[in-house]
């Protein structure tokens, strides 16, 4: 096998990177000062950097490399399709085999009557599609004024104008004039940070009922849809109380609004079932998928749509929407091979009953660490809340994220990719993770937590 193993020295790459490459979600000046860590190759759950260091990737890239790195059959699927038909569009009454086969496959594995697929290039643009689709649907039903979409604070639905507007990240809304009109946000089911004296179950129900209150405030005839991640990912792996989703489902059933489950992270096995909606008994009208759909080997996303919405839209004439790369044949072929691997190697089962329970047990034990206020996990999505005061679930006196960033630095130095969101530490490892990988992950996490605690005590930040 030929690997691209010759590259310039790290310092040279870092200088070129800082000079010419604008990074997403990055402080450019800080990056230029420090230099990026440059990843050169990867296999299984392990990344290798330009200095030859081996790093355990407990984030599966950006929550996407579900089948792990370095799969030859994925490269072969892409090469085969590129030779056969590298590109053709699916506009104007044309189609091709990979787009058809993947749509059939997604309709087969998606729950309920989610039988129709509109392709995008990622999760953000799939959510843009959803905004236009649900508004077009209601207009086709003779209700053009039914166009408000209710989302949640601290949600993540992507970074395009519509995606970031649906999302509830204040830092994103602060840049670029967001949110766009007719998108509103209710509270998130984040008991640890916001639940006060309520029990998690009481709090979950209360937060769900904010949806009912918002529908009543706006008028049901103005509301098109509610969108939510089954488990909030980028918001900090916020696992909702068990009372939350049943109450949301009840409210959606009682009102004529569509329910969009953003499965971009939860989909394709991460929660221990194929979709997060199945783990929480959610019956969505539309699911957004991306990330694990191709395990990140190639960009692709999709909206998986129920019969009623798809049939109504089909009968309403042209849907004036689409992307040059909607249903890209190479991306579809790679996604099909990814789904074959996921099923043949029983990777969803590995999350539910193989490595999953072992990871959960070890992860929850991290709650015994003096710095950890809670250690929660569902399937292969886990988070730790860092705190100076466990009993009070108190934040640090330092600005939010200061301690998380320090902990993340110690993880990275100890060859573990674990992200921080504010002062929460999060993991979402590849679904191929083994029990011995778990042992390495936990050992490095503990070491990073110990180093973080020592350092913040030294620097007077442990308060
Ligand atoms: C990552 C993500 C998106 C955006 O997907 P992109 O492929 O980055 O556009 C949307 N929703 C959720 C829940 C995500 O985690």
Automatic annotation (TrEMBL):
The keyword tRNA processing does not apply. Keywords: Aminotransferase, Pyridoxal phosphate, Transferase. Its cofactor is pyridoxal 5'-phosphate. One of its GO terms (molecular function) is pyridoxal phosphate binding. Signal peptide: none annotated. Gene3D superfamilies: Aspartate Aminotransferase, domain 1, Type I PLP-dependent aspartate aminotransferase-like (Major domain). CDD domains: OAT_like. InterPro entries: Aminotrans_3, Aminotrans_3_PPA_site, PyrdxlP-dep_Trfase, PyrdxlP-dep_Trfase_major, PyrdxlP-dep_Trfase_small. Pfam families: Aminotran_3. Belongs to the class-III pyridoxal-phosphate-dependent aminotransferase family. NCBIfam families: PRK07480.1 (NF005682). This is Putrescine aminotransferase. It comes from Tropicimonas isoalkanivorans.
């Amino acid at each position: 096998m030929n690997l691209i193993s010759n590259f310039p020295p790290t310092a040279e790459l870092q200088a070129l990177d800082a000079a010419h490459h604008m990074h997403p979600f990055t402080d450019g000046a800080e990056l230029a000062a420090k230099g990026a860590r440059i990843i050169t190759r990867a296999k299984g759950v392990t990344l290798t950097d330009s200095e030859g260091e081996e790093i355990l990737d407990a984030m599966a890239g950006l929550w996407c490399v579900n089948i792990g790195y370095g799969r030859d059959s994925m490269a072969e699927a892409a090469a085969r399709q590129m030779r056969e038909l590298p590109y053709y569009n699916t506009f104007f009454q044309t189609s091709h085999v990979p787009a058809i086969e993947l749509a059939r496959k997604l309709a087969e594995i998606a729950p309920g009557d989610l039988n129709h697929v509109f392709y995008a290039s990622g999760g953000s643009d799939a959510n843009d599609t959803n905004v236009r689709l649900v508004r077009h649907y209601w207009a086709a039903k003779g209700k053009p004024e039914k166009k408000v979409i209710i989302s949640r604070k601290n949600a993540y639905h992507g970074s395009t104008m519509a995606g970031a507007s649906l999302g509830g990240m204040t830092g994103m809304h602060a840049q670029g004039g967001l949110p766009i009109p007719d998108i509103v946000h209710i509270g998130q089911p984040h008991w640890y940070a916001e639940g006060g004296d309520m029990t998690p179950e009481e709090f979950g129900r209360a937060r769900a009922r904010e949806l009912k209150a918002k529908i009543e405030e706006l008028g049901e005839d103005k509301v098109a849809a509610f969108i939510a991640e089954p488990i909030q990912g980028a918001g900090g792996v916020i696992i909702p109380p068990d009372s939350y989703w049943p109450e949301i489902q009840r409210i959606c059933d009682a009102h004529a609004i569509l329910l969009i489950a953003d499965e971009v992270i939860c989909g394709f096995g991460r929660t221990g079932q194929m979709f997060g909606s199945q783990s929480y008994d959610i019956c969505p009208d539309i699911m957004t998928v991306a990330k694990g759909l191709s395990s990140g080997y190639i960009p692709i996303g999709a909206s998986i749509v129920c019969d009623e919405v798809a049939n109504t839209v089909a009968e309403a004439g042209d849907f004036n929407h689409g992307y040059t790369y909607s249903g890209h044949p190479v991306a579809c072929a790679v996604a099909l091979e990814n789904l074959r691997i996921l099923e043949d190697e029983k990777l969803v089962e590995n999350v539910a009953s193989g490595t999953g329970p072992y990871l959960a047990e070890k992860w929850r034990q991290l709650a015994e660490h003096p710095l950890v206020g809670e250690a929660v996990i569902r399937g292969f999505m886990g988070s730790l809340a860092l705190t100076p005061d466990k009993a009070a679930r108190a934040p640090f006196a330092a600005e939010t994220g200061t301690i998380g960033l320090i902990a993340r630095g110690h993880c990275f130095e100890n060859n573990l990719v674990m992200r921080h969101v504010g002062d929460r530490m999060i993991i979402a490892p590849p679904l191929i993770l083994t029990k011995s990988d778990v042992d390495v992950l936990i050992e490095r996490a503990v070491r990073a937590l110990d180093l973080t605690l020592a350092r913040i005590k030294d620097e007077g930040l442990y308060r």
